[in-house]
Amino acid sequence: MPDPYFVQVDTAELADLGRAFEVVDQHAELDHRYRKMLADSQRTLTAAEVRLTQARGLAKRLLVLLKAAGPDFADSLPAAARTAVEAGSAQANALIYDPEQA
How far apart are CA 9 and CA 63, in angstroms? Predict the structure, then answer.
């Protein structure tokens, strides 16, 4: 695998992460530190491309935000929002644990 620092990822390929961030933004009750993390992540996704290392960082942030939202967060969501969170979590796990397949 090439050096992930130099590998670029089109942010359109990270749409599942973006949708999951939007659900967290709309439905989660987070303190100001997590809100800043969320805003920074969403701002990063506005670029046309990001480094693979940045994409992996975004994936880790999503998992942190979902954990901060609470253990029953996904269960309390409407079906469409729950599906978006599940897809975002799956993409996050793929980026973190198997970036070649993501």
Answer: 19
**Cβ neighbours, 10 Å, residue 83:** 15
Percent of the chain past pLDDT 90, that is, above it, reads 88
CB neighbours of 69 closer than 8 A, spacing ≥ 6? Answer: 24, 27, 28, 29, 30
Model pTM score: 0.91
Neighbouring residues of 93: CB distance < 8 A, sequence distance ≥ 6: 59, 63
- Token pair belonging to 91: 């993409």
Distance, CA of 25 to CA of 72 (rounded, Å): 16
Question: Cα-flanking dihedrals φ and ψ of residue 28, to 5°?
Answer: -90, 145
